[in-house]
Amino acid sequence: xxxxxxxxxxxxxxxxxxxxxxxxxxxxxxxxxxxxxxxxxxxxxxxxxxxxxxxxxxxxxxxxxxxxxxxxxxxxxxxxxxxxxxxxxxxxxxxxxxxxxxxxxxx
Length: 107
What we know:
The chain contains four helices and six strands, in the order αββββαβαβα. The protein is α+β, with helices and mostly antiparallel strands and about 110 residues long. It starts with a helix and ends with a helix.
């Protein structure tokens, strides 16, 4: 199962990824934030497209949950680390990272 250390290791291994404080969380970004890790290390939020969010939440509802607010309607999705494998984390972070890299290239 995944944990906050494996999440951080995988996130920072992505090209150009950096981390820094973001309110009570740790943000991972490439110009634009693609993930945030909760202070307690139990969950993280990832930026997917709404279609990707729907797919992930249907595929593994015990692992992924849409955030229930405006951020969630934009694709922000919670991953519960104790229920996720490292492969789940790597695939989700890679998916979210692609959008941040694309946003950075447009600027």
